[in-house]
Amino acid sequence: MTPPASAENARRFHQLHQDGLLILANAWDAGSARLIESVGAKAIATSSAAVAWSHGYADGDLLPVPLLAATVAEIARVIRVPLSVDFEGGYSSDPVRVGENAAVLIAAGAVGINIEDGGGTPELLGAKIGEIRRRASQLGVSLFVNARVDTYLRELVPADRQLDETLARAALYRAAGADGIFVPGVVDAATIRTIAAAVRLPLNVLARPTLPPAGELAALGVRRLSAGSGIAGAAYGRIAALATGFMHEGRSAPLAEGALSYRDINALIATP
Length: 272
Description:
By secondary structure, this protein is α/β, with parallel strands linked by helices. It contains twelve helices and eight strands.
Protein backbone atom coordinates (compact mmCIF):
# COMPACT_ATOMS: atom_id res chain seq x y z
CA MET A 1 0.00 0.00 0.00
CA THR A 2 1.10 3.54 -0.68
CA PRO A 3 2.03 5.71 2.35
CA PRO A 4 -0.65 8.28 3.36
CA ALA A 5 1.61 11.17 2.34
CA SER A 6 2.00 9.73 -1.16
CA ALA A 7 -1.73 9.20 -1.48
CA GLU A 8 -2.36 12.82 -0.52
CA ASN A 9 0.28 14.07 -2.97
CA ALA A 10 -1.30 11.99 -5.75
CA ARG A 11 -4.69 13.53 -5.00
CA ARG A 12 -3.17 17.01 -4.95
CA PHE A 13 -1.37 16.43 -8.24
CA HIS A 14 -4.57 15.41 -10.00
CA GLN A 15 -6.33 18.47 -8.56
CA LEU A 16 -3.61 20.80 -9.84
CA HIS A 17 -4.66 19.91 -13.40
CA GLN A 18 -8.29 20.88 -12.92
CA ASP A 19 -8.17 24.66 -12.53
CA GLY A 20 -5.88 27.24 -14.11
CA LEU A 21 -2.43 26.49 -15.48
CA LEU A 22 0.09 24.29 -13.66
CA ILE A 23 3.59 25.56 -14.48
CA LEU A 24 6.40 23.05 -13.97
CA ALA A 25 10.03 24.20 -13.85
CA ASN A 26 11.62 20.80 -14.41
CA ALA A 27 14.35 19.64 -12.03
CA TRP A 28 17.10 17.03 -12.37
CA ASP A 29 18.34 16.22 -8.87
CA ALA A 30 17.47 16.73 -5.21
CA GLY A 31 19.21 20.10 -5.02
CA SER A 32 17.50 21.61 -8.06
CA ALA A 33 14.15 20.18 -6.95
CA ARG A 34 14.47 21.64 -3.46
CA LEU A 35 15.46 25.02 -4.91
CA ILE A 36 12.53 25.06 -7.34
CA GLU A 37 10.13 24.08 -4.55
CA SER A 38 11.50 26.90 -2.37
CA VAL A 39 10.58 29.57 -4.92
CA GLY A 40 6.94 28.54 -5.02
CA ALA A 41 6.50 25.40 -7.12
CA LYS A 42 3.19 23.64 -6.56
CA ALA A 43 4.71 20.40 -7.83
CA ILE A 44 8.07 19.14 -9.05
CA ALA A 45 8.57 17.41 -12.38
CA THR A 46 11.83 15.98 -13.67
CA SER A 47 13.34 16.40 -17.12
CA SER A 48 14.52 13.06 -18.53
CA ALA A 49 17.25 14.78 -20.51
CA ALA A 50 18.53 16.75 -17.52
CA VAL A 51 18.46 13.71 -15.22
CA ALA A 52 20.34 11.66 -17.81
CA TRP A 53 22.93 14.40 -18.34
CA SER A 54 23.48 14.72 -14.58
CA HIS A 55 24.46 11.04 -14.52
CA GLY A 56 26.63 11.20 -17.63
CA TYR A 57 24.14 9.63 -20.06
CA ALA A 58 22.61 11.02 -23.23
CA ASP A 59 18.84 11.39 -23.33
CA GLY A 60 16.86 8.65 -25.08
CA ASP A 61 15.96 5.69 -22.82
CA LEU A 62 19.65 5.11 -21.99
CA LEU A 63 19.58 5.91 -18.25
CA PRO A 64 19.55 2.74 -16.12
CA VAL A 65 16.30 2.47 -14.18
CA PRO A 66 18.08 1.99 -10.81
CA LEU A 67 19.81 5.36 -11.28
CA LEU A 68 16.51 7.01 -12.15
CA ALA A 69 14.81 5.42 -9.14
CA ALA A 70 17.61 6.58 -6.86
CA THR A 71 17.21 10.11 -8.19
CA VAL A 72 13.44 9.97 -7.61
CA ALA A 73 13.97 8.77 -4.03
CA GLU A 74 16.50 11.54 -3.38
CA ILE A 75 14.12 14.20 -4.70
CA ALA A 76 11.13 12.79 -2.80
CA ARG A 77 13.14 12.90 0.42
CA VAL A 78 13.72 16.67 0.26
CA ILE A 79 10.41 18.01 -1.11
CA ARG A 80 6.87 18.08 0.22
CA VAL A 81 4.98 18.83 -3.00
CA PRO A 82 3.89 16.17 -5.53
CA LEU A 83 6.59 14.65 -7.74
CA SER A 84 6.13 13.66 -11.38
CA VAL A 85 8.86 11.81 -13.28
CA ASP A 86 9.72 11.93 -16.96
CA PHE A 87 9.73 8.22 -17.78
CA GLU A 88 10.80 8.59 -21.45
CA GLY A 89 9.47 5.47 -23.24
CA GLY A 90 9.42 3.41 -20.06
CA TYR A 91 12.96 2.06 -20.65
CA SER A 92 11.68 -1.02 -22.44
CA SER A 93 9.64 -2.06 -25.48
CA ASP A 94 7.92 -4.72 -23.35
CA PRO A 95 4.75 -3.31 -21.75
CA VAL A 96 5.02 -5.69 -18.79
CA ARG A 97 8.57 -4.55 -18.08
CA VAL A 98 7.46 -0.93 -18.43
CA GLY A 99 4.80 -1.57 -15.79
CA GLU A 100 7.44 -3.06 -13.51
CA ASN A 101 9.71 -0.06 -14.04
CA ALA A 102 6.84 2.29 -13.21
CA ALA A 103 6.20 0.36 -9.99
CA VAL A 104 9.82 0.99 -8.98
CA LEU A 105 9.35 4.74 -9.46
CA ILE A 106 6.08 4.73 -7.52
CA ALA A 107 7.84 2.99 -4.63
CA ALA A 108 10.54 5.68 -4.79
CA GLY A 109 7.97 8.48 -4.41
CA ALA A 110 6.57 9.38 -7.83
CA VAL A 111 2.85 10.22 -8.04
CA GLY A 112 2.94 11.13 -11.73
CA ILE A 113 4.84 10.12 -14.86
CA ASN A 114 5.30 11.24 -18.45
CA ILE A 115 5.60 8.47 -21.02
CA GLU A 116 6.16 9.11 -24.72
CA ASP A 117 5.36 7.36 -27.98
CA GLY A 118 8.49 8.63 -29.76
CA GLY A 119 9.43 6.33 -32.60
CA GLY A 120 7.18 3.50 -31.42
CA THR A 121 3.65 2.78 -32.53
CA PRO A 122 0.66 4.36 -30.80
CA GLU A 123 -0.62 0.86 -30.03
CA LEU A 124 2.57 0.05 -28.16
CA LEU A 125 2.28 3.13 -25.97
CA GLY A 126 -1.37 2.26 -25.35
CA ALA A 127 -0.30 -1.17 -24.11
CA LYS A 128 2.38 0.39 -21.89
CA ILE A 129 -0.16 2.78 -20.36
CA GLY A 130 -2.47 -0.14 -19.63
CA GLU A 131 0.28 -2.00 -17.79
CA ILE A 132 1.31 1.11 -15.85
CA ARG A 133 -2.27 1.68 -14.82
CA ARG A 134 -2.60 -1.94 -13.71
CA ARG A 135 0.54 -1.85 -11.59
CA ALA A 136 -0.33 1.50 -10.04
CA SER A 137 -3.75 0.16 -9.06
CA GLN A 138 -2.13 -2.86 -7.44
CA LEU A 139 0.03 -0.50 -5.40
CA GLY A 140 -2.94 1.62 -4.42
CA VAL A 141 -1.58 4.75 -6.09
CA SER A 142 -3.69 7.12 -8.16
CA LEU A 143 -0.77 7.73 -10.51
CA PHE A 144 -1.18 10.61 -12.96
CA VAL A 145 -0.17 9.22 -16.36
CA ASN A 146 0.72 11.98 -18.81
CA ALA A 147 0.91 10.52 -22.34
CA ARG A 148 3.31 12.38 -24.64
CA VAL A 149 2.34 12.61 -28.31
CA ASP A 150 5.44 13.28 -30.40
CA THR A 151 3.81 14.12 -33.72
CA TYR A 152 4.96 17.76 -33.58
CA LEU A 153 8.20 17.46 -31.62
CA ARG A 154 9.62 14.66 -33.77
CA GLU A 155 7.65 15.50 -36.92
CA LEU A 156 6.43 11.91 -37.11
CA VAL A 157 4.01 12.70 -39.92
CA PRO A 158 3.81 15.45 -42.59
CA ALA A 159 2.71 18.86 -41.31
CA ASP A 160 -0.74 18.63 -42.90
CA ARG A 161 -1.44 15.44 -40.96
CA GLN A 162 -0.01 16.41 -37.58
CA LEU A 163 -3.23 17.65 -36.02
CA ASP A 164 -5.36 14.68 -37.06
CA GLU A 165 -2.66 12.22 -36.00
CA THR A 166 -2.26 13.96 -32.66
CA LEU A 167 -5.98 13.75 -31.93
CA ALA A 168 -6.14 10.10 -32.98
CA ARG A 169 -3.24 9.18 -30.71
CA ALA A 170 -4.65 11.19 -27.83
CA ALA A 171 -7.96 9.32 -28.11
CA LEU A 172 -6.12 5.98 -28.05
CA TYR A 173 -4.10 6.97 -24.98
CA ARG A 174 -7.16 8.28 -23.19
CA ALA A 175 -8.92 4.95 -23.78
CA ALA A 176 -5.84 3.12 -22.47
CA GLY A 177 -6.01 5.02 -19.18
CA ALA A 178 -4.01 8.22 -19.59
CA ASP A 179 -4.89 11.14 -17.30
CA GLY A 180 -3.30 13.88 -19.41
CA ILE A 181 -2.00 14.51 -22.90
CA PHE A 182 1.36 16.16 -23.55
CA VAL A 183 1.96 17.64 -27.02
CA PRO A 184 5.46 19.15 -27.06
CA GLY A 185 6.47 21.19 -30.07
CA VAL A 186 3.08 22.73 -30.84
CA VAL A 187 3.16 26.55 -30.60
CA ASP A 188 0.34 27.85 -32.81
CA ALA A 189 -2.49 29.29 -30.69
CA ALA A 190 -5.33 28.10 -32.91
CA THR A 191 -3.91 24.58 -33.06
CA ILE A 192 -3.44 24.50 -29.30
CA ARG A 193 -7.05 25.59 -28.79
CA THR A 194 -8.28 22.85 -31.12
CA ILE A 195 -6.25 20.16 -29.38
CA ALA A 196 -7.26 21.31 -25.90
CA ALA A 197 -10.94 21.20 -26.82
CA ALA A 198 -10.72 17.81 -28.51
CA VAL A 199 -8.59 15.64 -26.22
CA ARG A 200 -10.96 15.77 -23.22
CA LEU A 201 -8.03 15.47 -20.84
CA PRO A 202 -5.71 18.13 -19.34
CA LEU A 203 -3.38 19.36 -22.08
CA ASN A 204 0.34 19.88 -21.42
CA VAL A 205 2.59 21.92 -23.73
CA LEU A 206 6.33 22.53 -23.71
CA ALA A 207 8.09 25.88 -23.34
CA ARG A 208 9.33 27.28 -26.63
CA PRO A 209 10.46 30.83 -27.53
CA THR A 210 7.41 31.35 -29.77
CA LEU A 211 4.86 29.75 -27.43
CA PRO A 212 2.06 32.08 -26.28
CA PRO A 213 2.44 33.45 -22.73
CA ALA A 214 0.97 31.64 -19.73
CA GLY A 215 -2.20 33.71 -19.49
CA GLU A 216 -3.05 33.11 -23.13
CA LEU A 217 -2.29 29.39 -22.83
CA ALA A 218 -4.73 29.10 -19.94
CA ALA A 219 -7.41 30.86 -22.01
CA LEU A 220 -6.73 28.44 -24.87
CA GLY A 221 -7.50 25.52 -22.55
CA VAL A 222 -3.98 24.40 -21.62
CA ARG A 223 -3.70 23.02 -18.09
CA ARG A 224 0.04 22.35 -17.81
CA LEU A 225 3.17 24.11 -19.06
CA SER A 226 6.56 22.39 -18.75
CA ALA A 227 10.04 23.86 -19.01
CA GLY A 228 11.41 20.48 -20.10
CA SER A 229 15.21 20.59 -20.32
CA GLY A 230 15.16 24.37 -20.77
CA ILE A 231 16.24 25.34 -17.26
CA ALA A 232 18.95 22.69 -17.18
CA GLY A 233 20.15 23.84 -20.61
CA ALA A 234 20.34 27.43 -19.41
CA ALA A 235 22.23 26.32 -16.30
CA TYR A 236 24.70 24.31 -18.39
CA GLY A 237 25.23 27.33 -20.62
CA ARG A 238 25.95 29.49 -17.59
CA ILE A 239 28.35 26.90 -16.19
CA ALA A 240 30.20 26.71 -19.50
CA ALA A 241 30.55 30.49 -19.68
CA LEU A 242 31.73 30.83 -16.08
CA ALA A 243 34.15 27.91 -16.28
CA THR A 244 35.60 29.15 -19.57
CA GLY A 245 36.10 32.68 -18.27
CA PHE A 246 37.59 31.51 -14.99
CA MET A 247 40.03 29.08 -16.60
CA HIS A 248 41.14 31.47 -19.33
CA GLU A 249 41.20 34.71 -17.35
CA GLY A 250 41.30 33.64 -13.71
CA ARG A 251 38.85 36.34 -12.65
CA SER A 252 36.82 35.55 -9.52
CA ALA A 253 34.25 38.37 -9.64
CA PRO A 254 31.96 36.81 -12.29
CA LEU A 255 31.47 33.73 -10.08
CA ALA A 256 29.56 35.87 -7.59
CA GLU A 257 27.28 37.56 -10.11
CA GLY A 258 23.72 36.38 -9.53
CA ALA A 259 24.92 33.55 -7.30
CA LEU A 260 23.19 32.23 -4.21
CA SER A 261 25.45 32.27 -1.19
CA TYR A 262 26.99 29.13 0.25
CA ARG A 263 25.12 29.76 3.49
CA ASP A 264 21.75 30.16 1.78
CA ILE A 265 22.14 27.02 -0.32
CA ASN A 266 23.33 24.97 2.64
CA ALA A 267 20.41 26.16 4.76
CA LEU A 268 17.95 25.40 1.97
CA ILE A 269 19.20 21.82 1.55
CA ALA A 270 19.44 21.22 5.31
CA THR A 271 15.80 22.13 6.00
CA PRO A 272 13.45 20.41 3.55
